[in-house]
Amino acid sequence: MSDRRRFLKTTALGAALGPSLLEGCAPADPRTPSVSVRPVALSTWEHGLGANAAAWDILSRGGGALDAVEAGVRVPEADPSVTTVGYGGFPDRFGKVTLDACIMDETGRCGSVAFLQEIKHPISVARRVMEETPHVMLVGQGALDFAVAQGFERENLLTPEAEAAWLQWKETNGETLPRINIENHDTIGMLTLDQAGNLAGACTTSGAAFKYHGRVGDSPLIGAGLYVDNEVGGATSTGWGEAVIRAVGCFLVVEFMRQGYSPAAACEMAVDRVISKNPDWRDIQVGFLALDKNGQHGSFCIAPGFNYAIYTPEMENRLFDSGSRL
Q1: Taking the domain 35-321, which CATH number applies?
Q2: Is the pTM of this model over 0.85?
Q3: Contact 110/102 with Cβ under 8 angstroms?
Q4: What confidence category does residue 178 fall into, taking pLDDT thresholds of 50, 70 and 90?
């Protein structure tokens, strides 16, 4: 590329993003070789440790990224102590546990369910949508009917602990906006890279605690809560979903990586885009987690408190704190 073309490309990118996003975030030199790391399991939050362990059991034996990411997120989905995912998740303002999830493989196939009730593992229903239908997303009663037809059992997902928290909220609070890094870490987002070099991702949640009935956040939306491109990398998000949706956050992270930015720089730039689209950004939390084709990872968030778990051959299932803007 000539110097003039490179200048024009950089100028156009700077105009699109705003000056603050490019400052201190120079793209990686594509001529610089990077060490390839395989396999990798990468998950949001402390409950990602259990997800990573289940995924690693598949990845370490040569299994595929898609099988690994589904098996991984099913762990917190079934854990009643995780009050932001699946069984045991805090309900909406009417006391109903409603679940959202999506999954994406290395070929670009994807499946999603939203506003799903009474099914413990929405991620597996999302995979069936991907594999058994011509659609990407099913919602509400239609998603439930499909899940039952596929053999999934209906069950009560509202635990006594979650019900007690809801009743207390009704008596003492009554607000819909959750607190930063408490109800707000409402997902398990996961990215996997297998030994063959293929990527997959999954995101599953019970959503913001005590949300309006019918609310759907970013987690089941391809490009917002999750995006995977096998040529480049993948990204997932956590936090206040409305803010992520406004920025189409995870697609943005992957596109920044496509332009040559590291996973960490791409996440930071996407956070700055979220900030630019949300005047109330100091009162919310949004975090991004990214994994590139070579197994390099990065994260960034608005407020301190977001952590993530990573499992590689050299680094056994450890937690790390994300960098933050505040």
Answers
A1: 3.60.20.30
A2: yes
A3: yes
A4: low
